[in-house]
Every structure is written in C-alpha cells, then in structure tokens.
Amino acid sequence: MTTNILEMRSITKTFPGVKALSNVTLDVGRGEVHAICGENGAGKSTLMKVLSGVYPHGTYTGDIVFEDEVVEFKSISDSEAKGIVIIHQELALSPYLSIAENIFLNNEQKGALGLIDWNRTNLEAAKLLARVGLKENPTTRIMDIGVGKQQLVEIAKALSKRVKLLILDEPTAALNDDDSDHLLDLILHLKGQGITSIIISHKLNEIKKVSDSVTVIRDGRAIETIAKVDVTEERIIKDMVGRDLEHRYPDHTPDIGSEILRVEDWTAFHPQDPTRVMVDHVNLNVRSGEIVGIAGLMGAGRTEFAMSLFGRSYGSRITGRVFKRGVEIKTRTVTEAIDNGIAYATEDRKTYGLNLIEDIKRNISMAALHRLVKKGLVNDNEEYRVANEYRTSMNIKAPSVLAKTGKLSGGNQQKVVLSKWIYSDPDVLILDEPTRGIDVGAKYEIYTIINKLAAAGKGVIVISSELPELLGICDRIYTLAEGAITGEFPIAIATPETLIKHMTMEKAR
Amino acid sequence: MSDQNATPVQGGLVNPSENKATSWLSHVLTDLGKNGIFIALILVVVLFTILTDGILLRPQNISNLIVQNGYILVLAIGMVMVIVAGHIDLSVGSVAAFVGACSGVFAVQWGLPWWLAIIMSLAIGALVGVWQGFWIAYVGIPAFIVTLAGMLIFRGLALVVLGNSNIGSFPAEYRALGNGFLTDVFGEFDLDPLTLGVGAIAVIALIIQQVRTRLGRAKYGQEVEPLVWFVIKLVLITAGLGFFAYALASYKGIPVTLIVLAVLVLIYGVVMNRTVFGRHIYAIGGNRHAAELSGIKNRRVDFYLFVNMGILAALAGLIFTARLNLAGPKAGDGFELEAISAAFIGGAAVQGGIGTVGGAIIGGLIIGVLNNGMSILGIGIEWQQAVKGLVLLLAVAFDVYNKRRSGGH
Description:
The complex is a heterodimer of chains A (509) and B (409). Chain A is α/β, with parallel strands linked by helices and 509 residues long. Chain A has helices at 44-52, 76-81, 99-103, 118-132, 147-160, 177-192, 204-210, 233-241, 302-309, 334-339, 349-353, 360-364, 380-393, 410-423, 440-455, 467-473, 496-503, and strands at 4-15, 18-29, 33-37, 61-66, 69-71, 84-87, 165-169, 196-200, 213-218, 221-227, 259-269, 277-287, 291-296, 316-324, 327-329, 342-345, 373-374, 377-378, 428-432, 459-464, 476-481, 484-490. Chain A is globular. With 409 residues, chain B is mainly alpha-helical. Chain B contains 16 helices and two strands. In chain B, strands 1-2 form a two-stranded antiparallel sheet. The relative contact order of chain B is 0.18.
C-alpha cells in the first residue's frame, strides 16, 4: 500500500475547441489536506469533476488510482460509493427541507415496509451535526440557517456517506471570517479522524493555514506541488499567474478635486422588520478623483447602505439627504439615481448584475440604452461598436461581444458589469466587492480600471471585506459597524489594526 | 467549466486557417441550426404536400391556411412577448370570446358603425389588459394565477353579454376582417395584378432591408455571412414569397387578415428588436433583478405587456367573430393553448428571456399546417389533438437537446 490515497495520472480533458486539462498529474497523500489553487478557468473545477465522475470515464484520457485501484467512475454515485464526496461552491441543499432530510437526501433511513424512519433520521442527523460542531435542531429548515451553517450541513452529509476523500470547492467563498475559521478548523479536525481533504481555494492565507501541500494549476496544467514548509504566498502567486507579481496593486497618484457627492444622515430599516435599523445616520462624502473605501464586516450594513442609496433598492423607512456638488438630489428610484450620475455595481454579479443568457453587447448597453436610440430605434450597429470598444479597453476575454455572459469567467463577467456602468457615464461609482471570486491577475486589472476612473475625475466608493485591498487602492477609508460609521481614515494613517478595531466597535447605546 | 478564455469556440466564428469550403459549410450549418424551426416548417409542409397529393399547396388552401390561423397568429405575437418577460397568459381565449360578444352588441344590437364597434372592442381589450396588468405588475400576483382567474372571469362575462344566445350577423365591413380579400381593384384577371404587385414590392423591400443590414454590419466591422450563402438565402426567400403571392393571386387575392397580420409582424418585430421597450422585455426575462438595478422599470414594462396582450386578444376575437359572422359562447375555446404552443414551438424559453415574434409566427404556422393537413386527410379531431401535443413536446425537447449539445450548462 502506498502512502497516496489518490493518484491522478496524465489526465487530459478536452471540450470542443478547448483543452481544459492537459496531462495533469496529481498525487494526494493519505490523511493530508491538499490544496489546489489556480486562477478562475485554470481547470481546477474540471479536474475535480473528472475525479468525481461528473465527467464520466471515457470522456477524458488518463488514469485515476484511488486506494491503489484503478477506478472508472460513470457518475457521481460511483465515486460516492468509493468514498469520494465533492461539495460544490454552490451548495446543493434544498431550502424547504430540514437539515436531517437534506443530510439523508437520496440515502433515506428506511424502516419497516420501506417507509422513512423519521426518528432514526433525526437521531443519526443529530450525531453527524455533533461531529461537525453544528448546534442546530435536525428538523430546522435549511432556509432558516446561514450559509456558514449550511456549509457544515454539506459536510455532515458527506460524513453520512462514509467519506474518505472530501473535496471542497471554494468552501469559504461566501463565508465571513468566523464561519471560515470554524470550517477550516473542522477540516483539520476531520483530518485527525483520518479523512483526506482536497480544498480548492483562492485565499492564500487559508491555504497556508490548513494545507499540507499545495498544487498549483495554470492553463490546464499542474505547475508544481509545494510541500507545506516551502509554501509562500509569493511562490503560489508566481505559479498561478506565471510571472512575478511584485505589485499586487497598481500605482495610484491621487488627483483629488472638490466634493462630488455627500450623504447626510442616511438611515434605513430592515425591509421586513421596520423596527430594525440597518443603516444608522451615515454621513460620508467623496471627492472627484478620489477612491473612498468602506470597510466593514459581513452584516455591517455596507451593501444595505449602498443599495438603499441607489434608488431605494433595499430597506424601508429610508431617510437622509444626498448632495451632488453641493446641490441636493433625489435618488428615489434606480432611474433617478442613474440620471443623477450614480452607478452601483453589485457584489452578486450573477443574481443582480448580469443577464447571463444574453450576450456581452446587450449587457453593456442595458443601463444606458437610451444613448443608442436614434429616431426611436436602438442602433444595434452602434451598440456593437460601443461593446467592442469596451471589450478592447477593458480587456474582456471573449471570442466576440456576441458571446453570452454566462460563459465568461468571473473576472470577465465583472469587467462586463463595470463596462455597463461606465457606459452609463456616472460621476460616482459605488463598487460593491468588485473583486470577489476573481483570480489574482484579473484583480489587478480591476484595480487598474478603478484607478483610471478616478483619474478621469470620477468619485469611486469601494466596498470590500478584504482590508489589504482597501489599503492598497483607496485614498480614504470609512469603517462601518452595525450600520453606523465608526471612523474615517486618510490612507496615510490607516493600518489594518485600527481599521479592524473600528470595524468591530459596538455602538454606544 | 465556466470559462473559455479567449478561445473562439462559438460556431459562428470561423478559424481563418480552415479552407474556404469548410468555412462556407460551417456557416450554412450554423444558420440551419439557428433556423431549425424554419426547416421544421418546410419539412411539415413537404410532408403534408406529399400525403395530400399536393392539395395542401393549392391556391385556395394556402389562402385558407392564413385566414383560418390568423387569429392564433395574432395571439402568438402577444403571447411570445409575455413569455419572453417570464410570464404566461391563460386568459386570451376567454378575452377573445368576451370582446367578440361585446363587438356583437356594439355592431349588431346597437347598430353602431363598424369602425366605431371595432375601436370600442379594442378599447375593451385594453381595459382587460389594464385590469390584469394591474394585478400582475403592481400587486405582484403571478401571471399564471391572474390570467387563470381571467380565463374564468371573461368566459363568464362573455356568457353574460351574450345572454345565452348567439349574436349575428355582422355588417359586411366588419366581416371583411375575417373573410375579406383585397382584389379586383384593377378589374378582373386570372391572376390578380394587385396581389402580384404587393408580392413584388414585399420581395424588393425585403431584399433592400437585408442588403442594408449587411452593409451596415460590414461598415461597423462585424462579421457577415459569406456572400454566396447570403444570395442563395435571398433567392430562396424570394422564390417562397413569389410562390405564395402567385397562389394568392390565382385565388381571391390578399386576405384582409393577412394584411393585418403582416402589419403586426412588422411592427412587433421592430418593437422587440429595436426599441427600448422591446429590449427591456428581454432584459427583464433574462434577469429580473439585474434589470431592476439597471434602472429598468420592471412593473411598467409588465403592465404594458399585458395591456398589449389585451388589445391583441381583442383583435383576435374580432377576426374570429368576423370569420364566423357570429359571436358565440364557445368562441376562443382553447386559443390560449394554441398561442402558447406556437410561442414554445417557435423557440421561446419557459423561464423567459428567449423568444422571437418570427419564431412564434412560424410555430403558429406549423400548428396551422398540421391542423389543415390532417383535416384534408380526414383525420379526426381527437387524433389531431394528440399529434399537436406530441409536436409541442418534441419541439421543446429538440430545443433543450440542441442547447445541451452547444455546451450550455
């Protein structure tokens, strides 16, 4: 018996016109946590889909050896039967079913007559929940618990299948820091129980924290596997992008002009619970050419503030005043906000930002279609030209502007969203988590775009949970906690420590 | 894999290193793939032409095909718009019956001039649309529920208006909407010169429009199809239209229904593709949230969509009533299902965001040819129903299969 639980040998997988994986070899040691990282589209997910049987044997070339045996999975149930369980980025839970029902979905605990034994179902579920450290009643519905806990339910579900190799695809992407830490601890805990894990992640610090070795994949090839002792952020980044990335943030020389937008006393309440204050007397301003950051933990009210400001897209009982260049403006509807030169790029591109079944061209023109209208008709040739300009200037990687946005990678989708808002010709852009779920190379490009917007005299507000990012690109940073502004720091005096201190400040009651 | 960075894999793009013949062929194949529904129509026509020994394509039958299906096609236009926005309308058959009954009251019982009766009937259709649009757009009740209720409400109201009897017969000008022909303006000929003239003008207009589009695209550096294929397509379309015009000319001339329909197709084709309103319908159907956050007024678009549907349902009711010369309680029965089928056979997506007016018309024509062909063959109504159901299922299944093959997720 070798020390490797899994050996993938010379895996090659081609799609029509694309070689997604090229001769990839991956060895995973028994009982280790093995991280796989790479830019979006590098082939990580494809590799895991090959492993788990989503792409059945025969659609790829190469061999998979699991526990010293060559395996040929025809479907996910084949791989699960062997103890390989994959947890996808988008969780596969049914929101209206209980935790226990979800855990035993398609693996129902049956009693006499083949009927479901609910007592046993809930009892077994409770045992599994204890193993993953989740203190919830097994009969609670999935929709009533947060994403972090849902992730734990997924792991409990995997445990119920007697998992030997657990694959987690970007498990912390949607989690806050506490939930992420808990999850990573759990992975280490399971490792103690002999469960091997493969974790796909963008977050270099968490990779350093939990993994015993790291394999970097780039352009469908395995670049190298690095042992824990040799892991450094620089080395991983270099492998991922194929070049040294000395500067993760582009140089930015601020040329700050006069105040362009000021918000006074902005207050908004929860849409369903109008007694719960979500945004609490926020005062802030942004000047032309300035990049202003809003730092806050999840639930601090960052998105709530931005969306309530942007055409009252969130919340109830909204009060406060907005001034543009000193003149009061109204932003009661999205149209009014756009007409007043405000743009808001959402943190959730796929749900709120893009029409995924439509092409790049029509997505870019969506917020400012009126600019293309001549004699009552949309000039679609002009639309094509405009979209093509953005494709070039924003470096959107797609065969043409007629490509559907649903087929683009996260970074390119984000560039389409930004193009859409830039084309609406705003004076102030509010960018909510502009680099979430985007690989390192594309992040740099997004930062460059943000700099260009500032250089063109626009005011940019960046909302982000990544402090290094805010510190890297902003001229001034506000901290937000429990819906209220708790501090304001010019970049010269902002440090991660002071920001975190103010982000976690409780408001005086 | 969710990403295909910089790798041109879309069928429409051609690798320059390939030789000319394969690039040409790939264009033809992509076009055929895109126009699968059109090919299906041609296949159905060919099939029934053979089965009926050519009766299907006789001038009189071609003319009948248009007149018999006109009201379904009118409904299909409005229906595909509603479906693209992610809704459905189950009430159109009942609304058609209700408006038909009202028009009977106006034109026959009250003896109002035919034009006033038609305008008032269309206004009632608009009011019905306002009613349903209000519940759907501003109260937020799903269209399925609102129009299911509407289906019952307006069927009931139609019976109330008719008072347990039929209303007929209508003035000649009114009847022309369903039965009339534009003919013999220049005297009597074997082949009606007006019809041929209009056919020729239509062909020329189509060619000019196609050439202008092509030149416009080329000017903006967009890819255009190979010239040979472009010309072949134009020749085929010209031949088809020419045959159609010839058939009409050798029978009674241009049906009034066809004129109404042609005008509607032109107008709504432009609305859906080239106006802000049309684009907003696609944006809403594709992603309602994203549309809202892009400043699109979803509610207003939804509202006007149903007002529009109400007017078109009214128009369909008028055409049907005019054709039968009778406003009866069974009018419009099952129209909604035929219109919905037409939209889906024509490539509309159940979840919204996808669909075209042209597709819905072709879908409606496929249903029409099936109805007509099977009737000629003497196949009973029971089998006709079953076959139409099967065709709907297969058409959508084919569409789903096609999308999967082309690499959608």
